[in-house]
Amino acid sequence: MIRIGQIGIGHNHGEAKMLAVRKRPDLFEVVGYAEEDESWVEKRGGNKGYEGLPRLSVEEVIEKSDAILVECDVWNLTKYASMCIKAGKHIHMDKPMSGTLEECKALLDEAEEKKLVVQMGYMYRYNPAVRRLIDAYRKGDLGEITSVNAEMSTFHAVAYKKWLTNFEGGIMYILGSHLIDLIVYLLGEPDHVTSFMKHTGLDGVDFPDNTLAVMEYGNALARVFVSSVEVNGWGRRQFMAAGTKGTVNIVPLENKITMTYSDLSIAQNEYEDMKITPDIADVPKDARYDDMMADFYDYIMGTKENPFTYKHDLAVARTIERVIKGDK
Question: Which fold has domain 2-121?
Fold first, then answer.
């Protein structure tokens, strides 16, 4: 049994993580949560995920816990995660990493030195179609990847868009990070990045809300498009990887997952749409983080190894910064 607490309830994924943990009393004993911002307590403290849990100080959560969910406001993630690591606690840290690259590296280096688990909250790592894509690539079914097309857009409400003004990269920083995580896992860090960070100014809110990054890798190109102003953007969220032997296309990414697969044995006429559509069960919205939290337990217990290494997480942080700023 792992004693677990949560620091912060301001992250948009925070309550869902706590609900996933509370589904597994066989794995986790929840000690309580901490939130230093009273406005979040007022807004979310009464939500189902926190019913019956004691509100503690940050120091009390760290002291009482073996592992901690770091789910505070995005700009404080690395700050609180570092406090946990310094105290010798395993962490699930929501995304994306905040602070400077030097602060991110220091956190990950110390965690690795102390053999502490750092699990980042990128949920598409657990998407069953994405897992099928990664497996096909590992087995060589796709050959050498030459193209990735990744999109994750929404038509956001004004309040959410105002919140996005907190981040230099706007929507690319918050949603594009999910896609960059997967691209870096498949292809590593890019050789070169060209970014387009457009401000439409829709609804009178000024931030990068219509964004594109092109990541160059040897013979491969990866395109990441993220928008806050795309009507029915959810329905076009996609991740496509094409290689010299085959192509996997997932669109939409979830609810309802639709994946197509083609390889040279299927696509025998280049002027026809020749593919198969594997039957992949969707993940219900209220179960989005269940497998992630079960893996967090297994990583801590040593029965599974986290495939997303400290080195990978730092590479993602570096690449996000390059995408936001563009290579000079």
Answer: Rossmann fold (3.40.50)
